[in-house]
Amino acid sequence: MNVMADLSGSVWKIEVEERDRVNEGDVLLIMESMKMEIPLTASEGGVIKEIRVKVGDMLSEGNIAIVMESDDK
After folding, report:
1. Is 49 left (phi over 0), alpha (psi -120 to 50) or beta?
2. Which tens digits make up the pLDDT trace of 1-59?
3. Three-state SS for 37?
4. Is 2 helix (H, G, I), strand (E, B) or coil?
5. Where do the Lipoyl-binding domain residues begin and end (predicted)?
6. Does domain 2-70 have CATH number 2.40.50.100?
7. Of the candidates 54, 53, 55, 56, which has an alpha carbon nearest to the alpha carbon of residue 2?
8. Where are the domains of the chain?
9. pTM of the predicted model, to two decimals?
10. Half-sphere exposure for 54 (CA within 13 Å, toward CB)
11. Which of 22, 37, 46, 65 sits at a 20 to 30 Å CA gap from 2?
């Protein structure tokens, strides 16, 4: 499962590491856009497989930030 940016902005903070187990609704990273902090959350539970961004990276809407393995696999 791919976790994608909902809007354009920069990665302000990453709250997880690869191999972390997360639950639905957990904050994975925080983006900054127009001086607002926007959390990117898990839509379902699973394990973080790959983090494709680092702090300061610019993302456009639809860019893949994190790859997860769903619990429903």
Report:
1. alpha
2. 999 998 999 999 999 999 999 999 999 999 999 999 999 999 999 999 999 999 999 99
3. strand
4. strand
5. 1-69
6. yes
7. 53
8. 2-70
9. 0.89
10. 0
11. 37
